[in-house]
């Protein structure tokens, strides 16, 4: 094994506590969310990202402000999921080195996300993090970005794809304590994005912005709910009715004035 890679403990136990998934979900989330980690990944992602998708969903939950009820059960669930990630990645024939690197980043990102919460900070979690559980290391904020930099250099798409996800979900590692850390993470995220999704080389570079704008408009239209169009149509119709009503009222008043002048025998325009 490459000595620069984090070492994965194969002897780490599969579970700290024995409990079924639905019970775990009830304890962890407070409601029946037993399928929370089973939602499918997009078809466009790599096999390794698909294997990591349940753990990335946990990052979404934690970052969205979920409050833990049982820290020990939650950690048990994550340990089981990390083992499952490794098994699925092996079945998908992913490179062992790539799996090791991605698992290291996931452990570090999950630890950071939990310890940034009010319910995970200053708890027993910091005494026994996921990183220490699987790799016997207490801090992965530096090593994770070394993995990312090496993946950028070698254009390792599978590693970069997961790295992009965890960065977008708030992972900062060593940059969290630096004064311009957020800016550096933002620049790194943009760099990864450009490698993963380069602009199309169609030979019509001047028209690229228009193409992007058109695609974005199409995307927005696709996700605007139907009821929004119904409400907008009703508002426009109501505005037209009001305008016609005012216009007809003005015509009616003008005709009444003319009839009144005719009845009194005053010629039209008299007195001017």
UniProtKB/TrEMBL annotation:
- The residue ranges of the Type IV / VI secretion system DotU domain are 47-245
Provide the leader sequence positions.
Answer: none
Keywords per UniProt? Membrane, Transmembrane, Transmembrane helix
Q: Could you confirm whether the keyword tRNA processing appears in this record?
A: no
By its UniProt entry, which Pfam families does this protein fall under? Answer: DotU (PF09850)
Q: What is the protein's given name?
A: Type IV / VI secretion system DotU domain-containing protein
The residue ranges crossing the membrane are 226-246
């Amino acid at each position: 094994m490459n000595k620069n890679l984090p070492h994965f403990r194969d002897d780490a136990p599969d579970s700290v506590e024995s409990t079924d998934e639905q019970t775990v979900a009830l304890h962890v989330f407070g409601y029946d969310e037993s399928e929370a980690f089973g939602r499918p990944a997009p078809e466009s992602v790599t096999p390794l990202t698909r294997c990591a998708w349940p753990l990335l969903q946990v990052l979404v939950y934690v970052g969205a402000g979920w409050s833990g009820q049982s820290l020990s059960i939650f950690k048990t669930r994550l340990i089981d999921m990390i083992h499952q990630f490794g098994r699925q990645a092996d079945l998908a024939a992913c490179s062992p080195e790539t799996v090791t690197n991605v698992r290291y980043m996931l452990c570090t990102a999950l630890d950071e996300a939990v310890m940034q919460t009010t319910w995970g900070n200053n708890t027993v979690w910091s005494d026994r993090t996921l990183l220490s559980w699987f790799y016997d290391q207490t801090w992965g904020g530096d090593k994770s970005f070394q993995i990312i930099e090496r993946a950028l250099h070698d254009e390792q798409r599978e590693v970069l794809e997961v790295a992009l996800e965890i960065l977008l979900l708030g992972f900062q590692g060593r940059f969290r304590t630096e004064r311009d850390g957020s800016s550096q993470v933002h620049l790194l995220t943009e760099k990864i994005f450009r490698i993963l999704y380069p602009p199309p080389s169609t030979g019509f570079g001047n028209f690229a912005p228009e193409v992007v704008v058109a695609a974005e408009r199409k995307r927005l239209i696709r996700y605007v709910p139907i009821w929004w169009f119904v409400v907008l149509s009703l508002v426009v119709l109501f505005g037209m009715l009001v305008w016609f009503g005012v216009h007809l009222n003005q015509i009616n008043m003008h005709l009444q004035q003319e009839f009144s002048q005719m009845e009194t025998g005053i010629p039209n325009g008299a007195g001017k």
